[in-house]
Fold this sequence. Notes:
The chain is an alpha+beta fold. It has six helices and four strands; from the N terminus they run ααβααβαββα. The chain has helices spanning about 1-20, 20-35, 50-60, 60-70, 90-100, 130-140, and strands at about 35-40, 70-80, 110-115, 120-125. A four-stranded mixed β-sheet has the order 2-1-3-4. The longest helix is centred in the first third of the chain and has 17 residues, at about 1-20. It is globular. About 25% of the residues are buried. It holds the Pfam family Thioredoxin_2. Keywords: Signal.
Amino acid sequence: MKTIFTAIFLALFSVLANAQTRFEKAKKTASEQNELILLNFSGSDWCIPCIKLHKNIIETDAFKQLSADHILQYVNVDFPRSKKNQPSAEIKKENASLAERYNSKGIFPYTILLNSEGKILKTWEGLPSEDSIAFSNEIRSFYPNK
């Protein structure tokens, strides 16, 4: 009986713990660690500029260093078209909500830099013209603890 109760408790706890969205987690962590948040609206399997943005900026060491230096929380708001690339129902719902709030025009790629409270600091429509180092340095310029 004790084992059954423990199993039910752990299952319930894991459901409740996962109920918080990625964006809410990013805001919480950003607030606790005085970090910025970057939302990137992309179509990872159909949008050529989105694919280039990820390859040439998001996946680079210069960009990844922003997270390592506790400057940035990154949230990819992806809208793939291929069935095999579809996110979970929860992530689809969150992505739709974020798009409604921050990307009502449906621009891809669309990248938004926010402070920890969710205030927009800067936006990039389309593929940024900067290389990964310049893009990362621009984000650093908004960081409150330079």
